[in-house]
């Protein structure tokens, strides 16, 4: 059972890497700043999922808090940058 779960997590890790690279290309080649910012969301999601997979595989569950904090900071940062692009100021 454990070996099957390791194989599934390895498969997901490879899939996350492919999707992260595709999103990274989109962030690099995006025609507008908004496209680049929106392309950063899948990248940060992939990083958070890598952190969660790592924390599960090595029984270090305190990294779950790190992943949640990373996702929260990514969301707040995205909202702040989009507001800056729309209004010209953050506050």
In short:
By secondary structure, the protein is an all-alpha fold. Helices cover 86% and strands 0% of the residues.
Highlighted features:
single chain; mainly alpha; 0% strand; flat; 91 residues
Can you describe this structure?
The model has no long low-confidence stretch (mean pLDDT 90). α1 packs antiparallel against α2 and α2 packs antiparallel against α3. The chain is mainly alpha-helical. 86% of the residues lie in helices and 0% in strands. The chain has one domain.
Query: How much beta, percentage-wise?
Result: under 5%
What is the count of distinct domains?
A: 1
Average of pLDDT: 90
Task: Please summarize the sheet with the most strands.
Answer: none
Structural class: mainly alpha
- Terminus-to-terminus distance: 52 Å
Output the helix-strand order.
HHH
Cα Rg:
16 Å
Percentage of residues in helical conformation? over 70%
Q: What shape does the CA trace take?
A: flat
Number of strands: 0
| Unreliable sequence segments | none
Helical segment count: 3
């Amino acid at each position: 059972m454990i070996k099957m779960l390791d194989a599934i997590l390895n498969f997901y890790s490879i899939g996350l890497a492919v999707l992260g690279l595709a999103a990274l290309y989109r962030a690099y080649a995006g025609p507008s700043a908004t496209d680049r910012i929106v392309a950063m969301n899948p990248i940060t999601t992939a990083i958070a999922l890598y952190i969660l997979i790592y924390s599960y595989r090595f029984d270090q569950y305190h990294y779950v808090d790190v992943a949640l904090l990373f996702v929260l900071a990514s969301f707040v940062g995205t909202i702040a940058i989009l507001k800056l692009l729309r209004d010209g100021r953050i506050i």
